[in-house]
Write a structure and sequence with these properties.
Length: about 300
């Protein structure tokens, strides 16, 4: 089993009354490496980003459990001391399949995951027309996740219960779903698609003492707040899932336009130094660390440099 030191650390963060965990949404190895280099306490593997980066498709329930678990495991493996919170969509099926999903995530060393109450052919929580399963089906998913965790020796993975029911069922019904999920074994509550700061503040009060999770989506339906305001509202985990998708999309779009229009890409400089060159990118991915490890172990692959 890939032991998740990240799960223990995430639980420490959740228990710290002064701590709010802010996570950038990462979608692949490069974006995860960049986020790690900046020094974030935790990372969030976005399901939408996984669909886009691995399949080139929108977040419409097209990814499989293997797509998601493999990507999450790769990201978690870059630095085992940094918790990775991963989207697990609906758990990908019946309680039996949910348990299998959770087992895969635990084996990959993921620190936490969230499971939602949409139908299996789900969609991004900030799109319209979401369809829900009955509360009993949703609770069965959470119960299966908790049972899978209990069956895995040494696992302390954090279960985050997400509900997308606010849009169609209203606030009170959504909170009741979250409370039922917590009773079934969830550790953290995640109300998706809130539209006012009043709702954002109220759900924290109504779910206390269960920690709450906040999703900040650029262009979505929830008002955007910074880390200080999220902490003041009482949130323990805040994710920005579009962080890397937005930057990769805009950066790649602009540089492709430059290459298409001029036939070349100009080098970029900051304070007179080249930025974004090949060595800088490779160093972000661990070039020096890899060559140093090889030499320490008695290897000679990089004796003439790298």
């Amino acid at each position: 089993m890939a032991v998740s030191r990240g799960a223990a650390k995430l639980r420490e963060y959740l228990a710290d009354p002064e701590k709010v965990v802010v996570c950038p949404g990462v979608l692949d190895g490069l974006t995860a490496r960049v986020a790690l280099s900046v020094g974030f306490d935790a990372l969030y593997m976005t399901g939408a980003g996984t669909a886009i980066s691995r399949l080139g498709q929108p977040d419409l329930g097209l990814t499989t459990v293997d797509d998601m678990a493999t990507n999450a495991g790769m990201i978690a493996g870059l630095d085992r001391s940094v918790p990775v919170i991963a989207d697990a969509d609906t758990g990908f099926g019946s309680p039996l399949m949910v348990a299998r999903t959770v087992e895969k995530y635990m084996l990959q060393g993921v620190a936490a995951f969230h499971i939602e109450d949409q139908v299996t052919t789900k969609r991004c929580g900030h799109l319209l027309g979401k369809e829900l399963v009955d509360t009993s089906v949703y609770v069965a998913r959470i119960r299966a996740a908790a049972a899978a965790r209990a069956a895995m020796p040494g696992s302390d993975i954090v279960i985050i219960a997400r509900t997308d029911s606010l849009q169609s069922l209203g606030y009170d019904a959504a909170v009741e779903r979250l409370k039922a999920a917590v009773a079934a074994g969830a550790d953290v509550a995640f109300l998706e698609g809130m539209t006012t700061k009043e709702q954002m503040a109220q759900v924290v009060k109504d779910m206390a003492p269960t920690p709450c999770f906040l999703n900040m989506v650029s262009g979505g339906v929830t008002p955007l707040v910074d880390a200080a305001e999220a902490k003041a509202l009482g949130y323990k985990i805040v994710i920005w899932p579009m962080a890397c998708m937005t930057s990769v999309y805009l950066g790649m779009r602009d540089i492709c336009r430059e290459l298409k229009g001029t036939g070349r890409i100009e080098e970029k400089y900051e304070d007179g130094k080249l930025v974004g060159g090949v060595r800088e990118v490779f160093e972000c991915a661990g070039l020096s660390k890899c060559s140093a490890f090889d030499a320490e172990m008695g290897g000679t692959s990089f004796k003439n440099g790298a």
